[in-house]
């Protein structure tokens, strides 16, 4: 059994209570002031806390105690006298921070029992490390099948040096995945440089990517190294690659073929060794069909293809991510927050998360600051309308289930048409019809292109 530590904050500690606690296996530390309380608490393990308000803490001292009382890993019990029970600020403090209170005089036995329960609740708040973190070394949280597949893929991809294409809806974690690949690759001690191709005006993109020499154009007062050169030896993430203007696509393709760049206004070509990872939420098949993206560049960029799962397809991971976000930002609340109410959990599962993990983080951070109770509710997340699913007819339920099955099979099989069809036990023609009916384009893209990609990959390998 692990040692249970108890911080006993009192101006007048009771000897008999101390010995009763010791007899029940508690390692008791007696402290008198807010600073001592803070120093004796740990954040990484569950602990018990006994706050003897009846021994006389003034309001100023209570305010100083607030950050310690807000720690989620400490199960606090307050001791108060009858008069304090009528005091509004004491009542508020107990409601916000304590699992229980005992009105004194009371038997030592009663107090020790209450501390045991509070500690038990604090233990429940501990999320097992492996479950909470998913992949601690990548900063990625998630334990669902789709995320486990992603971790495996990241491991494999990191071991090779070919270019990687990451597709996925906005906010699903494409940049985080790129970072994880870099961090686990042989290039990890060299730079990781990210450039958002969609955010830089087209006329400036060439000089941003390739750099320029002094005097290359009006205003070029000194030489500037471009992002490709800045990433030399390391990894370059071309984010929102689907928005890359055609002019830059030609220059990028040339660089990929020759592994050399020329700064604007420069005379010499410079050898650059970078690994390219590109990412987009754009439907690339559509972009190529409409002539907005060069297929030859796409094949070069996408030797390996990763599909980032949308948050709505991650099941229980939604709760893991929510808890992780709350733990990360809870200090912004300035008071104790004891997790999510059941209606908040239900709403998080019912909602479709168009903005994916980024939206989840934003909603929770806003709720941490604005919520007033001890728990974050569906209304705090502005998801009050999603607590119960609107009644659905059998026909609607079929459509929802069908789409879900399609999305999951596409993730499992990374867009390979014949495998998806096999998985779902339908013909390829039926699969195409279903995808069309559900307006699923990305899978369409990866499906058709995966085959061409595979051909290209083989051609490169030869
Ligand atoms: N699995 C995860 N675990 C923890 N945090 C995550 C996870 N996935 C994404 N995030 C967080 O969500 C936010 C959005 O992630 P990121 O920027 O990587 O998404 P993206 O797909 O690149 O977005 P966009 O398409 O808008 O560029 C970031 O704050 C990131 O840290």
Task: Write structural notes for this entry.
This protein is α/β, with parallel strands linked by helices. The protein folds into 4 domains: 4-126, Rossmann fold (3-Layer(aba) Sandwich), CATH 3.40.50; 133-307, P-loop containing nucleotide triphosphate hydrolases (Rossmann fold, 3-Layer(aba) Sandwich), CATH 3.40.50.300; 311-386, Helicase, Ruva Protein, domain 3 (Orthogonal Bundle), CATH 1.10.8; 394-449, no CATH class. It has helices spanning 15-23, 34-40, 59-69, 88-97, 108-125, 129-133, 145-159, 174-184, 202-210, 227-230, 246-258, 284-289, 295-301, 317-329, 342-350, 356-370, 394-412, 417-424, 428-437, 442-461, and strands at 4-9, 26-31, 47-52, 74-80, 100-103, 164-167, 192-196, 211-212, 224-225, 235-239, 260-261, 270-271, 275-280, 304-307. It has a 5-stranded parallel sheet. It has a 5-stranded parallel sheet with strand order 7-10-13-6-14, with helices on both faces. A two-stranded antiparallel sheet has the order 8-9. Strand 11 (260-261) and strand 12 (270-271) form a beta hairpin. Helix 11 crosses helix 13 (295-301). The model is unreliable at 443-450 and 452-462 (pLDDT under 50). It binds adenosine-5'-triphosphate (ATP). Residues 140-142, 168, 170-176, 239, 281, 321, 357-358, 361 line the site of adenosine-5'-triphosphate (ATP). Residues 140-142, 168, 170-176, 239, 281, 321, 357-358, 361 line the site of adenosine-5'-triphosphate.
């Amino acid at each position: 059994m692990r040692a249970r530590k108890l911080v006993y904050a009192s101006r007048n500690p009771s000897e008999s209570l101390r010995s009763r606690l010791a007899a029940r296996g508690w390692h008791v530390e007696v402290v008198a002031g807010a600073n001592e309380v803070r120093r004796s608490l740990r954040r990484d393990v569950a602990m018990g806390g006994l706050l003897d308000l009846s021994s006389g803490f003034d309001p100023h001292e209570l305010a100083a105690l607030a950050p310690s009382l807000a720690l989620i890993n400490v199960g606090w019990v307050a001791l108060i006298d009858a008069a304090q029970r009528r005091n509004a600020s004491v009542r508020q403090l107990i409601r916000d921070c304590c699992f229980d209170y005992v009105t004194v005089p009371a038997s030592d036995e009663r107090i020790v029992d209450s501390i045991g329960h509070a500690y038990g609740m604090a233990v429940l708040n501990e999320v097992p490390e492996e479950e909470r973190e998913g992949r601690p070394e990548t900063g990625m949280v998630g334990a669902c099948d789709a995320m486990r597949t992603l971790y495996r893929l990241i491991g494999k991809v990191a071991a090779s040096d070919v270019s990687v294409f990451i597709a996925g809806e906005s906010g699903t974690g494409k940049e985080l995945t790129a970072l994880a690949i870099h961090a686990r690759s042989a290039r990890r001690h060299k730079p990781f440089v990210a450039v958002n191709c969609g955010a830089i005006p087209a006329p400036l993109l060439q000089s941003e990517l390739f750099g320029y020499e002094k005097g290359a154009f009006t205003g070029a007062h000194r030489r500037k190294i471009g992002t490709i050169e800045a990433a030399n030896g390391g990894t370059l993430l071309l984010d929102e690659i689907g928005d890359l203007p055609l002019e830059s696509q030609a220059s990028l393709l040339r660089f990929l073929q020759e592994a050399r760049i020329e700064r604007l206004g420069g005379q010499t070509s410079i050898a650059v060794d970078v690994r390219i990872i590109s990412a987009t939420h754009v439907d690339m098949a559509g972009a190529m069909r409409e002539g907005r993206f060069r297929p030859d560049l796409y094949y070069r960029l996408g030797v390996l293809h990763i599909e980032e799962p949308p948050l709505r397809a991650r099941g229980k991971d939604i709760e893991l991510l929510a808890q992780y976000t709350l733990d990360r930002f809870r200090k912004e609340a300035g008071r104790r927050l004891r997790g999510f109410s059941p209606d908040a959990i239900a709403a998080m599962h019912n909602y479709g998360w168009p903005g994916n993990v980024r939206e989840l983080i934003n909603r929770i951070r806003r709720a941490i600051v604005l919520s007033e109770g001890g728990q974050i509710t569906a209304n705090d997340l502005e998801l009050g309308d999603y607590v119960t699913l609107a009644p659905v007819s059998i026909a609607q339920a079929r459509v929802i289930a069908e789409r879900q099955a399609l999305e999951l099979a596409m993730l499992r099989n990374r867009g390979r048409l014949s495998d998806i069809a096999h998985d779902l036990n339908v013909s390829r023609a039926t699969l195409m019809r279903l995808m069309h009916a559900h307006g699923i384009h990305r899978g369409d893209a990866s499906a058709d292109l995966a085959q061409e990609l595979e051909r290209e990959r083989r051609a490169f390998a030869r």
